[in-house]
Write a structure and sequence with these properties.
By secondary structure, this protein is α/β, with parallel strands linked by helices. It has two domains: about 5-125 and about 300-320, NAD(P)-binding Rossmann-like Domain (Rossmann fold, 3-Layer(aba) Sandwich); about 125-295, Dihydrodipicolinate Reductase, domain 2, CATH 3.30.360.10. Helix content is about 35%, strand content about 20%. The protein contains ten helices and 14 strands. The strands form two sheets. Strands 8-9-10-7-11-12-13-14 form an eight-stranded mixed β-sheet. The protein has a six-stranded parallel β-sheet with strand order 3-2-1-4-5-6, with helices on both faces. It is globular and about 70 Å long. The structure holds nicotinamide-adenine-dinucleotide.
């Protein structure tokens, strides 16, 4: 099988991680990288890859089969259009876009040009998340009734040197980070019926929130809460507890709790709680804990292998543009709820 030819557009925080991963993966060849910022040419040099400042020039001269789009979300539709017009399949970083209209435009362009889109909700490729999905959807903890998620950590001050991260339309932890939690909730618990959220920027005073609480109901009848803050000293986040990204200090704690009529799952330590004797249940009886064995894998590498298969046409994308649009719609509903102080039903239907 010949390697898939890939390009990367956008070499910031995420694009520079993609370079490392693509360059060390056998199933693909990195043929070119592109960023508006000429200073990033040195990063390309270090990896021995041709550097371009114009997307069209890079695509026309290197002719990749697929491209990874790691520009800020507001630029995804424009960068995807450049790829789609040339029949280049795309792995688009999450969120798929900054508005549902832009996300739907991406889905439409993909259809019109016959290009395939995988949205970079990479956590779905993590075996731990897949195992949590399987526990919940197989009924192993009975009927899922309530979920609690924590995403609490401290972003370093220098993270905010990049202006778009501090302002609308695409800055702030709801769109950048909690869209992951919302996507995992959709994946494990089904479609969201309604969100009601509060958000504050008490710590930093930016236009975008630093702390939020989100209350969620699902079409299934289950409920969930997410408490999130990027300005606190706390170990309970997906990043810190899964150890997925070596950049983060790793702690053996849990950050998500799935609870059902027959048991509960604490993630990512994968602790399953239940009553040993089903006929003896109730708060007076002892519960037992077992730990699910789950093999670890780097989700960005698993995602890249999947993207290569998607480019080859060997399998459909795990998260396509419309799926990504639904997770984006959930995040936008959270922001709308914060600004209107009302419950909102996420929707991708044009108003
Ligand atoms: N999967 C994850 O866990 C994860 C983590 C962080 C960021 N992201 C996502 O990745 C994307 C990028 O985020 P980031 O923090 O790396 O941003 P960043 O600001 O660090 O990098 C974006 C880069 O894109 C470049 N760029 C912008 N428009 C361009 C264009 N038209 N042509 C070429 N280059 C262009 C910028 O110059 C910049 O270097 C966002 O969608 C973000 O939500 C995903």
């Amino acid at each position: 099988m010949s390697p898939v030819k890939l390009a990367i557009i956008g070499l910031g925080l995420m694009g520079s991680r993609h370079i490392e991963i693509v360059n060390s993966f056998d199933g693909c060849d990195l043929v070119g990288v592109c960023d508006l910022d000429s200073d990033l040419g040195s990063l390309a040099d270090r990896h021995g890859v041709p550097f371009f400042q114009k997307i069209g020039e890079m695509l026309d001269s290197t002719r990749p089969d697929g491209a990874i789009l790691a520009t800020q979300s507001a630029a995804h539709v424009e960068t995807f259009e450049a790829c789609a017009r040339r029949g280049v399949h795309a792995l688009i970083e999450k969120p798929v876009a900054d508005t549902t209209q832009a996300a739907l435009r991406i889905a439409e362009l993909a259809d019109l040009t016959n290009t395939r889109v995988l949205v970079g909700h990479h956590r779905r490729h993590n075996p731990l998340v897949k195992a949590a999905h399987d526990v919940v959807t197989s009924g192993q903890i009975g009927n899922l009734l309530a979920v609690s998620m924590m995403w609490t950590l401290m972003k370093p001050d220098r993270y905010f040197d990049i202006a778009w991260r501090t302002v609308r339309p695409d800055g702030g932890p709801v769109l950048i980070n909690l869209v992951h939690e919302l996507d995992i909730l959709r994946y494990t618990c089904g479609e969201i019926d309604q969100v009601f959220a509060q958000g504050r920027s008490k710590a930093r005073g930016f236009e975008v929130e630093d702390s939020v609480s989100i209350s969620i109901t699902f079409r299934s009848g289950a409920v969930a809460t997410i408490v999130g803050s990027d300005a606190v000293t706390a170990p309970w986040s997906y990043e810190a507890t899964t150890g997925e990204n070596p950049l983060y200090f790793n702690v053996p704690e849990n950050c998500y709790y799935f609870t059902g009529t027959e048991g509960a799952l604490a993630f990512p330590q994968m602790e399953l709680w239940s009553y040993p004797d089903r006929d003896r249940h109730g708060w007076q009886h002892p519960m037992e804990k077992s730990v699910l064995p789950v093999s670890r894998a780097d989700s960005l590498t698993v995602q890249l292998a999947h993207f290569c298969d998607v480019v080859r046409g060997a399998r459909p994308p795990l998260v396509d543009a419309l799926d990504g649009a639904r997770s984006l719609a959930a995040a936008l509903a959270v922001l709308e709820s914060i600004s209107t102080n009302k419950p909102i039903t996420p929707s991708i239907d044009p108003a």
